[in-house]
Structure formats: structure tokens, C-alpha cells
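Input sequence (207 aa), recorded before submission:
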Amino acid sequence: VAQGGAVPAAAARAESDTPGALTLEDALARLQADGMTENERQAFWKDVREAGLLDEVVSAFEERAEDDPLNPDAQHDLGGAYLQKLFAVGNGPEQGIWATKADKAFDAALAIDPTHWDARFSKAVSLSFWPPIFGKQAAAIQHFETLVEQQGGSNDPRYAQTHYLLGNMYQQSGKTEQAIATWQAGLKIFPNDPQLAAQLGLHKGKQ
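Predicted structure, C-alpha cell format:
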């Protein structure tokens, strides 16, 4: 998640006097810092939940987004925090509430900056997980397609996921040829990506 805007000082207070315990201040600093991979970020979000800080982190990001409404990074980070609430509440109607909140936050980021890669990627991934009955898959595909165009063949390692997930969405929609073409195009740019290679290998094995 890109940096952008300071977290309110009042929200960034330490939450525990226990040596080594994760504090709200530390959590907010880490979540706004560059350099973590997506797997590392998700692992850290788990630490935040286990430390009982999730609701306070969400509140801090809400305050930051409200105080800096034209900052796309603040809106994107808020959407990511809402997704963590979705993961935490378990199956049930409350998931839809947090999914909708996240989607609106990503939309707010894209309204400010239509080229904000993180916001569009997060929105596409989020939409791809909605149950098929809600008809979100077509929108997810459209956002992934936009990202592929925006990436322009760059070999930034994180861009491999766009090709992988778009191919998966095509496959789920019954567009096998488009799925294969998407994975192949991705593998030309990222020849060592194990997920793209695995998908093509699995399909070849079925032929």
C-alpha cells in the first residue's frame, strides 16, 4: 500500500505497555509503509487481528480518509481495512456490508486517480470473490483487463498476478481460449512465475 497522508496523532497512540506487544502506532506505521509483499501484508493483518487492534485500525483509517478526502492512497487503505473486517466477521450478512464499504472506498480512490493500480487491483480481486448470484464477475474481468492495458507489458513482479487472475476469471466464465492466451501472455513477461506456469501445465495435461 502506498504512503499518503499522516494517520491522526490521537489514533496513533500506543495501546499496550507489554514489552514487545504490537501497538496501534506500530500497526498503522507498518500498514502505510512500502516494501511489504502481499503475503507479508496479509500475515501482518493477522497479527493486527490477533492483537485485538482491528477495529481501532479501521477507525484510524476512516479518520484519515475523512480528513484527506482527495488522497487516493488514504481511500485505498481504508478499503483494505474494510476487507479485513469482512474476513474477521465470518460467513453471514455482515460480510456484504463490509464488502460494499470496501468497494465504495476503492471507487473513491479511482475517482481521484483512475490509474491507481492498487485500488483497481484490490477492487477487481474483491469483486471476483462475490457469489456468482450477484453478477460481479463481469465487472471484475473488466477491471483486470484495464489493469493489463495499464501495465503495458511492464515486468514489475506484482503485475504477474493480473494475468494469472484474469485468466482464472476467463476460465470460470467458460472462456478457455482467452484464459490460455492470457496466461501465455503473462508467462512471456514473467517466465519464472510458478502460478502462470502451473495453470498452463494443468490445462496442457487435460488436453
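Checked by second reader. Residues 163 and 186 are 5 Å apart (CA to CA).
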